[in-house]
Amino acid sequence: MQEKSRYLSGKRIDPTPIQAGISLVDLIDDNFMAYNAARLREACRLFVSRMLEPDVTIGMSLTGALTPAGLGISAVLPLIEHGFVDWIVSTGANLYHDTHFGIGLAMHQGDPRIDDVLLREEGVVRIYDIFFDYRVLLSTDEFFREVISAPEFQHEMGTAEFHYRVGRYVEERERVLQQTTKSLLSAAYRQAVPIYTSSPGDSSIGMNVAAKALTGNRLRFDVSLDVNETAAIVLDAKRSGGKSAVFILGGGSPKNFLLQTEPQIQEVLGIEERGHDYFLQITDARPDTGGLSGATPSEAVSWKKVDPDKLPDAITCYVDSTIALPIITAYALAKHPPRSPKRLYERREEMMGKLEVEHRKAVGGRR
After folding, report:
1. How far lies 190's CA from each of 167, 287, 304, in Å?
2. Residue 9 included in any domain
C-alpha cells in the first residue's frame, strides 16, 4: 500500500451535526472546517493563543464605517477594556461617528433601497442601511468645535494626544448623560490606549479643525510625530523582549500606517529589526488588483513589514469585518482572561527617547 502523503495529515472533516444551544466557541472550533470559515477559525485561534500573550503588543487598524454600525460599542470597546488592544490607527470618520454615541446621539437601522432624494428631503443621512438625522452631524460638529476651542488644544500635537484629550471630554459627556460607556474614544482615554489617524484632514473632525483655523485657533496636527511615535511603540515592544502584532480590519491608509512602522524603523531610521511577528487581517479586497487593502502578508515580507520567519503566524480572512470582528471578539472574551493594560499613551516620551537613541547609533554607524 502506498505510504500516506504528508499533505493528508490535517484533521479529518467529520463534524458533529450542529445542535440547538451550541456555544460560539464550539461552533467555530468544530464546524468552521474549510474556506474562509476555516480562515476565521484560524484567526480566532491565532488571536487568542498567540497574540494575547502578555509580552505581545497589539496594534489595530480600523477602516470602513464600523463605528456607525455599532461595532465600536459591541466589539472594539470590549477589546480595549479587556486589554486586548494596545494601540489603534483609525480613519477619522470612524472616530467622528464613534463620538455620536458618546454624546448621546442616535443612529438607526434603515432600508438601503429607499430613494436618496427622498431621504435628503426628509433630512436623513444614509450610510448604506444606517440612517440618521442630519442634525446628528451638526451637533457633533458643534461638539468638536467647542472642545478644540479649549486652551489645552491651542498648540501643535500628534493625533494620539488629540484623541486622548477629546476622549476625556466624551467621557465627561457620557457621565453627564448618565449613560454607560458607548465611545471607544472614552474607553481608550481611560485605558491610555493611543489612537492615531493616518490622514487627520480626511474626516469631519479634520474639517472642523480646519474651520477653526480660519478664526485663529492654533491647533495643528504633527504627522511626523505620529510616524515616529508609532515606530517607537513597535521598537519598544521588540527591545523589551516581546513581540509586535497587527490586527487589520479592512485596509486603506490605516493598514499602511500600522505596517509602515517597520520600514520606518529599518529602511528610514537604519535600525536593525525583522518585522512584525503576528499578522491578522480581515478584508474583502482581492490581492490581484494591486491595492494595499488586498495585499497579502507574504507581500509585506518583501517590504520588511513582516518577519519572514513568522509567516506561519500570518492569517488573512476574506470576509466582511462586520461579520468577523464580533465573532473574534466573542471568541476571545470566552477563551482568554483580561490582560493588564499596557497604557502606552503614558509611555510615549519614554519610547520616543529610546527610538532617538537607537537612530543616533545607527546614523553614527553609517558614517
Report:
1. 8, 38, 34
2. no
Residue 2 lies in a domain: no
Q: Give the chain's radius of gyration (CA, Å).
A: 22
Residue 88, C-alpha cell as written in the block: 489603534
Could you tell me the pTM of the whole model? 0.95
Q: Give a yes or no: residue 20 inside a domain.
A: yes
| Cell (9 digits) for 337 | 482572561
| Distance of alpha carbon 364 from alpha carbon 366, whole angstroms | 5
Alpha carbon 77 to chain centroid, angstroms:
11
Alpha-carbon distances of 228 from 115, 178, 258, rounded to whole Å? 46, 38, 12
Assess if residue 272 is contained within a domain: yes
Confirm whether 305 is a catalytic residue. yes
Asked if residues 335 and 48 have their Cβ atoms less than 8 Å apart, the reply is yes
| CATH assignment at residue 213 | 3.40.910.10
Mean predicted lDDT score pLDDT of the chain: 94
State how many domains the chain has. Answer: 1
Task: Return the DSSP state at 346.
Answer: G
Bridge partners of 33, per DSSP, are none
The pLDDT tens digits of the residues spanning 106-143 come to: 999 999 999 999 999 999 999 999 999 999 999 999 99
Could you say which of 182, 305, 310, 342 is catalytic? 305
